[in-house]
Design goal:
By secondary structure, the protein is α/β, with parallel strands linked by helices. The protein folds into two domains: 69 residues, no CATH class; 191 residues, Vaccinia Virus protein VP39 (Rossmann fold). Helices cover 42% and strands 19% of the residues. The strands form two sheets. The chain has a seven-stranded mixed sheet with strand order 6-2-1-7-8-10-9. A three-stranded antiparallel sheet has the order 3-5-4. The model has no long low-confidence stretch (mean pLDDT 92).
Amino acid sequence: MTDHDIEEVEIRLFVEAMALRHGYDFRHYAKASIKRRVKALARAMGCENVGRLIPMLLREDGFLSQALSHLSVPVTEMFRDPQVFLALRREVLPLLDSYPRINIWQAGCASGEEAVSLAILLKEEGLLHKTQIYATDINDAALAKAEEGIYPAGVVATGERNYRKAGGTGSFVDYFHTAYEFSRVAPEIRERIVFAHHNLVGDGVFCEVNMVLCRNVLIYFDRSLQGKVLSLFNESLARGGFLCLGTQESLQFTTVASQFTPVNAESRIFKKTGARP
């Protein structure tokens, strides 16, 4: 076998060990993505090859959290893809306004920037007081950062530019308390968000909700896992609820496609028209 062939075996064994030893199943993640991340983990741990990671994964306490931090790399920012938040502001939130209570599930929340952005949007549209946002992720280190609600001031500066493009009507900095080059999310925004651990691969329905946001997560899954996760979202959504995906993701050719109709095709926002299974 060539070195390349051996490396492929090592990566497959590592992924199997993650599933069998710890219950985190990455076997249906996109192969190129998981390969890149496992190799990056090996480099970060000072291992000369991926095979060296396997005993650590099996035997060393504390290594799992390091592995998950590398395998689920959070890539996000405040009001990322502002045109999507503008579409939510104009086309979705007015429809949710008729509900006495609104539950939203933001899956794959990473370090919380998108959940915070959504809460700000709801605040400006007069809906935050009756909304509960459940923000979940597999990465406990990212969740801890999200729970803390403290970001470098530069994150807020970038967010303000996106906020304006998303139709922001107030002063973005008013939603944060800034000191010593760090900004803390204001309590009125933070208190409407519950951060929790949830594994889209292995866990079930998180709760019944009126909207699910899961943006730029499905692109890392293979087709079968995408179908499984979309079915999970379909089960979680009440009839008439909304699903918002990443701008490179789609319901086309999936088993749940017939359950939804586009609200804004460009922003990948859909409305559930079918009954819950």
